[in-house]
Amino acid sequence: MIQKIPRKAPNIGGFYRYGERLEKGFKAYKNADSELAEMILRVQNQWHCIQIELSMLRGITHLLEEEAQIHFSSMFHKLHINLDDVVRIIDGLIENNGDRETSRLPFLQLIWRKGKVKKLRFAVKEKDALEQALLRLEGWHWRLQPSLFLLALVKLPGVESQLAVYKDKGNPQVCKVTELRSAIQLDTTRQEMPSIFIPGSTLAEIRTPILYTRGELTQDSENGESLYVETYTPDSWTALDVITKNVRNLGRILSIVDPTLFGIPVCSGIVKVYNASGCICDFKLVFRLPNLHDRTPPRSLREVLLTSERYPLGKSLALARQVSRSVMFVHTSSFVHKNIRPETILILSREGLSGSTAVPFLVGFEQFRPEDGATYMKGDSAWEKDLYRHPTRQGLSPEDSYRMQHDIYSLGVILLEIGLWESFVVQDIGDGKWHPGKGLNISGFLPMGRQIEKARGIKEELLQIAKTRLPAIMGSKYTQIVVMCLCCLDKGNSNEFGQEGEFLDEDGILVGLRYIEKVSFRNAPQLVISYFTIL
After folding, report:
1. d(CA 230, CA 225)
2. Rounded CA separation 157/442 (Å)
3. 17, 41, 326, 341: least CB-packed within 10 angstroms?
4. 212-261 per-position pLDDT tens digit
5. In the 8-state DSSP scheme, what is residue 258?
6. pLDDT score for 269
7. How far is CA 224 from the centre of its chain?
């Protein structure tokens, strides 16, 4: 990262005047009815978390690249608007046409003084307004979190010192950023970091395959905890000690993820598998699955697309948003996934009073690579896998080295499938071979000899499907995101994601911020927030 003269820290001191007025509201409403008291508690919890994060960012943002500073300034502006709404509503409930005596009354006395008509109006109107304002504030905080986690990639010492100051103030996100940063930097001197490798006896002998995935379900042999296990097979062109180190580092990072934020299950350990000659032949990555009551067995997104009825619009949007969020957090962990397909997304479902809730988790790390590690121009010729790869990464000899934008392209294909609720890949029951789905007209491209021409033809077919079929189902904004993902590496004006030269920096922060703004930043994520309360 190019060093620049530090700019003046953004003026976020004005936020503290909101804090004073909110604290006044918290005290005035301590005797409120249970429904309102719960909303006030939510406001209080949000504000206390935001207050710590703002204080930390105040000492960091001026050290970052100019585009990063602009990003956070835009976030602060939106927070001003959201806090204005919350404070205005609370102020309106405390005060009664400027009557200062009234503003000091306990809540129940205040309602009684306003009379029954006012109480009815409050119950119907003010509560709803406060709920909507609170959802917007929670949505803002939800969108801030990926930006916070990108700080784990910044190597500047000023960031390190600021995180150290605020680590012990009880904010879970700051603590998690600090842990992630330490894991990425591989601080092996930390005594509290135990080995990520575990004995094979940890896993129960009974294994249950998950359809269309390379993973299996099993249990912890000691406590019966549900585990998901997938196999990473070392390639033949990389030294085994390098592979072992990379697998260890991945396991350490994935061991501290928050599944409710990352959409990635927690890695509980890695098992080394030895062949008859005593050499390592495989690694078993072991993940803990969230303990959801009444949870049905996990299924791959591929199986869900093939066998389940179309999700309601809100549920489809929530699924798409969380999958896109998981891709962002893989990048904040300093890795590229290289294998994002419906087969590498697990769907956990839970039946509740309001129906079934689908919670996605990104798995399938058998092709991962450190973001700054060596990339080998190796591939395969399986069209059902190439479908999710950018044209320059298809075939036995891909043209381009792998980077985050290639994961973004894969995401675009998956979002297209979710939006249409169609599987582009279907397995023949008779011969077990994979064939294009009915809605994917690419059979004419598959026999083509020149790989790049075939790949570009398939990409154009995906773009045509997105532009013609998707708007009527998912709307123009969702369609725009899909097209943006599919075109994220294009040259010229068709690439709304931006030309790569616009966001090249040493730490990989700018491409992450561009992703947040262009892909995962669209629309308030209220449905995702409500779905993830079950975790």
Report:
1. 16
2. 51
3. 17
4. 999 999 999 988 889 999 999 988 878 888 889 889 988 988 998 888 88
5. -
6. 95
7. 28
Query: How many angstroms separate the CA atoms of 362 and 345, rounded?
Result: 5
Q: Which residues make beta-bridge pairs with 380?
A: 395
pLDDT at position 63 is: 80
DSSP assignment, residue 205? Answer: S
Tokens of 321: 């948003």
Contact 22/50 with Cβ under 8 angstroms?
no
pLDDT of residue 253: 87
Q: In a 3-state reduction of DSSP, which class is residue 125?
A: helix
Q: Give the pair of three-digit tokens for residue 41.
A: 């508690």
Helix (H, G, I), strand (E, B) or coil at 270: strand
CATH topology of domain 297-534: Transferase(Phosphotransferase); domain 1 (1.10.510)
How many residues does this entry show for the chain?
535
- CB 417 within 8 Å of CB 424: yes
Q: Can you list the positions of beta strands (E) in 335-383?
A: 335-336, 345-352, 355-362, 369-370
What CA–CA distance (Å, rounded) separates 498 from 490? 9
Contacts of 403 (CB under 8 A, 6+ apart): 336, 371, 511
* Residue 432 C-beta-side C-alpha neighbours within 13 Å: 2
| Residues sharing a CB contact under 8 Å with residue 132, sequence separation 6 or more, in sequence order | none
> Helical H runs in 361-504?
383-386, 404-420, 451-474, 476-486
The whole-angstrom separation of Cα 146 and Cα 160 is 18
* Number of other residues whose CB lies within 10 A of the CB of residue 427: 16
Distance CA(315)–CA(530), nearest Å, equals 11
Give every CB contact of residue 309 below 8 A, 6+ residues apart in sequence: none
Higher pLDDT residue, 287 or 166? 287
**Which tokens belong to 458?**
């398939």
Contact indicator for 99, 113 with CB cutoff of 8 Å = no
Q: Which residues pair with 357 in a beta bridge?
A: 350
Whether pTM > 0.90 for this model: the answer is no
* Strands, sheet with 226-232, edge to edge from the N-terminal-most edge strand: 208-209, 216-219, 226-232, 280-288, 266-274
Domain residue spans of the chain: 15-184, 297-534
Q: Which helix (H) or strand (E) holds 283?
A: strand 280-288
DSSP string, 474-510: H-HHHHHHHHHHHTTT--STT-TT--GGGG--TTSHH
